[in-house]
Amino acid sequence: MKKKPCVLIVDDDRNTREGLQRALRRGYEVLVAESGERALQRLDECDVDILLSDVRMPGMDGVTLLQRARAHHPELVSILLTAYGNVEVAVEAMKVGAYDFLMKPVNLDHLDLLLQRALRSRDMESENRQLREELDSKFGLESIIGAAPLMQDLFETIRQAAPSQATVLIQGESGTGKELVAHALHRLSTRAQGPFVAVHCAALSDTLLESELFGHEKGAFTGAVSRRKGRFEMADGGTLFLDEVSEIDPAVQVKLLRVLEERCFERVGGTDPVEVDIRLVAATNRDLRAWVDEGKFREDLFFRLDVVNIRMPPLRERIEDLPLLCNHFIREFAERNHKSFEGISSEAIEVLSGYRWPGNIRELRNTVEKMVVLSRNDRLGVRDIPTNIRQAVRGGEMPSGTMRSVSTVQGASHSLADTEKAMILQALEQQGGNRTRAAEVLGISRRTLHRKLKQYEQEGTKMPIEKNAEAMGE
């Protein structure tokens, strides 16, 4: 049964307290307090959703109560009551966080509607805050996993480029995570509160792509029954991500070039200029410079796009990250499928490291999901690896350095926790004990790294000392 919202009524007048309590108890759990001091006690004792308080009370007044209550309970919804129509008091109440201000005697129907609206507003704020946190986790640097030197360079480029307004071109094979980087650039930029709008150019025909990007006016073509905004307008104030930009038709390339130069365009079938403030991030799985040389892409547009160039390394070039990636995906899919795994065996890691991974991270992720779903053991092994991958590895040669990379990362034990610990300590050692840089290299938050290291210290593990601090005698 769903728990009723809890309302705390604070008023020094007994009749008012009891009258409001009777009126609200059918739809709410109702608590009462005769003073601001007692109200603060009740807030600490109980889980209160809404504070409904008189303004004028002996001792602590309602505005002071509201200030002190929100200092310890920031999500508390507060509504103040008064028998005096004082605009200044109402303004002061709003400044310190009151949701609304009601005059006595209270209209009970109005109060009930106001309480419902206040709860909906609070729930929406909570959902939005949770969504932002999830987006930060999913699309911030923490979402891009890797400790290889190539990935360290990538993190540094993202960190430098994100706050700028520069156009970014991301190039890399399919499945390397280009869209994750685009999201990270947006989330780490000054436009993070604005929209992120993605367009997958290869999925749309030439005519449809032009309308999708720039919008159209009513009657511009058959079926255009009303004016429609394009993705450029939707992204105003935020970031527009054009995936597979190399597939755009030359005629649309001309219009795109003008937008990048002037930040202005006309909708399809229109003549009125539309101005937008957007940051453009483009991606392609082709060598766009070679595409230009072959006459398949405009050179002037290429130069407009290629302001900051980010190259996504294929998985085969950062194979030392494979154990970290595998264990990340094992954790994800084990949780999703309500299964438990100790990790993955060193033999399985060795086989997976010998594969070329033409589909890159996307293919690895799908492979690990299949292994997790079909495995009957508590540790993934060689037998869990799909047959086609085992046959491909058996028929070819393992990439040079694979055994060294795997043994360095895996160590003597190969559980999920042990592999994670080895990767963290390795990154910390490589960064000279600097925890901030190690967290960035690992793609995790500094808070998460600090918690892990504290756990390792409690287990008796010796931590690498920061070189600068050691030099200073700290």
Detailed description of the structure:
The protein is α/β, with parallel strands linked by helices and 474 residues long. The chain has three domains: 6-132, Rossmann fold (3-Layer(aba) Sandwich), CATH 3.40.50; 140-313, Rossmann fold, CATH 3.40.50.300; 316-471, Orthogonal Bundle (Helicase, Ruva Protein, domain 3). The protein has 21 helices and 14 strands. A five-stranded parallel beta sheet has the order 2-1-3-4-5, with helices on both faces. The protein has a five-stranded parallel beta sheet with strand order 7-8-11-6-12. A hairpin with a 6-residue loop joins strand 9 and strand 10. It starts with 5 loop residues before the first strand and ends with a helix. The model is unreliable at 397-415 and 469-474 (pLDDT under 50).
Which structural class should the secondary elements be placed in? alpha/beta
Determine the CATH topology of the largest domain.
Answer: Rossmann fold
The biggest sheet, with number of strands, parallel, antiparallel or mixed sense and barrel status, is: 5 strands, parallel
The CATH superfamily of the largest domain is P-loop containing nucleotide triphosphate hydrolases
**What's the CATH first level of the largest domain?**
Alpha Beta
Q: Per DSSP, what share of the residues sits in E-state strands of 2 or more residues?
A: 5-15%
Q: How would you write the strand order of the largest sheet? A: 2-1-3-4-5
Mean pLDDT: 83
Task: Count helical runs.
Answer: 21
CATH architecture name of the largest domain = 3-Layer(aba) Sandwich
How many strand units?
Answer: 14
